[in-house]
Amino acid sequence: MWSLPFFALGYAGLSQAWLPASGKIRGVSLGSQFVIEPWMANDEWNKMGCGGTESEFDCVSKLGQAQANQAFATHWSTWTTKDDIAKMQSYGINTIRIPVGYWMREDLVFSDSEHFPQGGLKDLEKICGWASDAGFYIIIDLHGAPGAQLAGNADTGQKAPSPGFYVDWQYERAYKFLEWMTSIVQNKANTAYRNVGMLEIVNEPLQSSNSQTNSMRKDYYPTAWKRIRAAEDAIGVSQTDRLHIQMMNTKWGSGDPHQYLPDDRFAAYDDHRYLKWSNDNGINNAGTGKTPAAYLKQSCIDDRGGNWPTIVGEFSLSVANDLENTDPAFAPPGDHVDWYRKWFAAQIQAYEKQSGWIFWSWKANFIGGRNDWRWSYKGNENPKEYIACC
């Protein structure tokens, strides 16, 4: 097996009140740990008895609550282990981002109409404890919002027919989740969460300028900010130990998240950069792109600046769907290891012009056990040296 060109970082003991001056974020997301996306965990999904369903909501509906709880408990305890944390540390990782759904706070779930697994909080605490012991910085990301922030997308926990999040009563459920999570991670008596320094208040909302995204920026973002700060005030959190509050940045396409914030102390921003779905400078156009040179050039000149501080919170080594498994310039990937290493290096050079990067994902488990390292940091062994490439 080959490796991505990781740095040996040794960033132990990052403080909870992280600021960009303390160093670059170099991390991985724990994709499909608490919000399973069947496309990247197909073998696991089938093993759980969820085959034939498209989301956690659907699987729980199929299995029934008791059987689903048992299946998900097994998944939560095995998908990310203490050995995984140790391997991340050996690779030089200093940060993990943990996607969660609002249903982790179980009293927010409408039991007569919503169906989600129960009991995940204890596993979140366990993983945060291991990561804190390893000196990692930890970001908890509200990946699945009440009502679903996107339609038909399993990464919200449900394949909703329309995005139902952008109304006051769903916002209220999200505020309650964020208050609850704040009170948990800021409780100094529970040291497992001591390195949680950031809450992302909604992952990947709608990409448009309309009444829904306007409402999110004008109402949800500032109110979520105030409710998190009030929760911290209620338990005596000092001004210097506040959580960072993270939103998708302007480049995401939902407008400027900073526009209506009451304050920007300890604000942070998230940028997701998947060149497989981009057409910047024609990189995926026949004639001007669809080549390794075009992808590498775009990463070498990429500018993800804008809102500050921005972390490129998701990226991968996957190229356009019509290229990644059939085009001989990119596939099979094992024949193009040197190029993928150079492209990884080009991407992280660009992203470290901002506040750092988080690879999607730590682990992937595909049909037939195909663990494609273009989506899986863990799918690489024996880390090699960084390659200068631009």
Word description of this protein:
There is one protein chain. This protein has helices at residues 42-47, 56-63, 65-79, 82-90, 121-133, 168-185, 211-234, 292-301, 321-324, 337-351; strands at residues 25-29, 95-101, 137-144, 196-200, 244-248, 267-272, 310-314, 356-359. Helix 8 (292-301) links the parallel strand 6 (267-272) and strand 7. 31% of the residues lie in helices and 12% in strands. The chain is an alpha/beta fold and 390 residues long. The protein is globular and about 55 Å long. Helix 2 (56-63) packs across helix 3, helix 6 (168-185) runs parallel beside helix 7 and helix 8 runs parallel beside helix 10 (337-351). The protein has an 8-stranded parallel β-sheet, covered by helices on one side. It has 10 helices and 8 strands.
